Structures are given as structure tokens and as C-alpha cells.
Amino acid sequence: MTEPSARPRSASAADDALAAAVELARAAAVETAGDPALVGDHLGAAPEPVAPVTGEVAPDVLGSVLTHTFASRLPGYVGWHWAVTLARFPGDDAVTVDEVVLLPGEQALLAPAWVPWHERLRPGDLSVGDVLPSTEDDPRLVPSYAADDDSADDPEGSVVAFEVGVGRERVMSCEGRSEAVDRWAAGEFGPASSMARHAPGPCVTCGFFLPLAGSLRSMLGACGNAYAPADGRVVTVDYGCGAHSQATLVLSEPVAVVTSARYDTSEYDVLPD
Fold first, then answer.
1. Half-sphere exposure of 113 (CA within 13 A, CB side)
2. If pLDDT is split at 50, 70 and 90, which confidence band does 36 have?
């Protein structure tokens, strides 16, 4: 038998008719459970407080409410119990069922708290065919009329797009751009990566480096070297790899160190008279 965390209080303060309606409460629990075997022993009953909506109504006019509890034998619900609430109006002998619920005790196994999908989502979760809608209050985006799209370095093209109505409705906010810079800088193609620490030079000095436009130009760019590990990726200006355009192999030949004077006496020079 599975008992709740604490046995309900005595029902002596509740209506006697409600306290005696154990079988009515059990029948309601069985109806909800769908099988008599899923409802266990009667564990007790506890009166429920009845509070009037306004102070003009006396509590005793509202009648009595009492909750019966039964052990749960439902598979997978260890530590839970059935709670059947009964009610009776003053002067009326009929007892009615208010509600039937399955409640957890202190030892019950509970599902973790629900987390909204946009908080559960992680990079890489999106697969082919999935749609990820952006929320209206996404702080990374702002209406295009409220901020300049500093990634557009073609003013004439921007004006034409705005006039014909094909411009973007929203652009990245300062907060959104800042988050992107921090995320990319801390990633595989940032200055702290092992590849960058052993590179012959930073990307900002590489001929294959394609800077981004706008305010991100001084911090980020794309790699255009087909042989580089970051080809086609966004890299920071202080990232680097061995495929740097100025990388060279300097061969140095070993030189013998002479510590004393040496003379070649195997041959003699003949000086003419």
C-alpha cells in the first residue's frame, strides 16, 4: 500500500454525512482510475476550509467540504494517492462529489519543471525540415525602421530596397551583434583556440581574410582559403592557422662553430721570384 507523505487530519470537525461517504468517494476514484484495482485502501479524511467571497456571508451557510484519500496502485505513480473531495449543503442530505485528483506525496516521483522550448533549445538541435520561429520580443532583433542595418555598405541599394518594399522587417540589434561576437570569439575559430595559438600570424594580416561589413568589420570576417580549417566560416581578426598567406618555410643550414684558429698545411704556395 502506498501512503501519502502525511496522513490527513481527523474529520471530526467535518459533516458526519461526508465522513461516512467513504464508498461514494471510492466509487468516484474508481471511475476516474478506470479500474478498481488501481484504488487502494482508504487512508483517511480531512475537512477543507470554506471561505466566503465576501464578509456578508457566514461560512456555515456555504456547507461542508471534506476530502477522502485512498492509496494509489497506479503503475508508475509511486508515492501518489487519490484525493476525492465531497461537499454537502446545509439542510440537504445529499452528498455530492466535487472533484477527484491524483496527488503526489513527499516520496512521489515527479516530472521536472516544464521549461519553455526557447530555453531548452541548443545550437545544433535544428534539423532538416524543422522551423524555428522567432518571438516578437527577441532582444537580438529590432524593427528595421528603428535601427540602421550597419551590415549594408551600399547606401543606394538600401534606398531602392526600402522604396520597393523588399527590405528586411527586422535587423540585428546591438545586443544581438554583441552576443554573436562573444559566441564566435569563444568558439573554435576564436583567439583562444589551439589552432590560433600556434598560427604564424592572425587572420587580419592574411590575404584570404574577407572582413565583414559594418561595425563588425574590425572584429570578424570570413576565411576564403580552401585549404584552411576555417574555410567558409566566420573567424575573429585575431584567429589564425597554418594556412596564413604570409606563412613561409625558412630552411636554416647548420653551421659549425669554430672555437680556435685552424691552418691548412697540406699544400704550400710557391711565390715567384
1. 2
2. very high
167 burial (CB, 10 Å; 0-12 / 13-18 / 19+) is: middle
What CA–CA distance (Å, rounded) separates 208 from 226? 9
Confirm if 44 and 8 have CB atoms less than 8 A apart.
Answer: yes
- Between vectors from CA 173 to CA 168 and to CA 179, what angle results, nearest 5°? 125
Angle at 209 between CA 208 and CA 211, to 5 degrees: 145
Is residue 14 within 8 A of residue 32, CB to CB? The reply is no
| DSSP assignment of 53-88 | SSTTS-GGGG-EEEEEEEEE--TT-TTEEEEEEEEE
Burial code (b: 16+ CB inside 10 Å, e: under 16) for 197-228 equals eebeebbbebebbeebeeebeebbbbbebeeb
pLDDT by residue (tens digit) across 145-174?
666 555 555 555 455 555 555 567 788 888
Residue 95 clears pLDDT 70, i.e. is over it:
yes
Listed residue (57, 52, 47, 122) closest to 88, CA to CA = 47
Backbone dihedral region of 46: left (phi > 0), alpha (psi from -120 to 50 degrees) or beta? Answer: beta
Residue where the block lists cell 524555428: 132
Residue 3 pLDDT > 50:
no
pLDDT in tens, 14-30: 578 899 999 999 999 99
Contacts for 72 with CB less than 8 Å, ≥ 6 apart? 2, 38, 39, 40, 80, 81, 82, 102
Residue 138 vs residues 40, 116, 128, 167, 173: alpha-carbon distances, Å: 50, 14, 23, 19, 10
3-class SS at 24?
Answer: helix
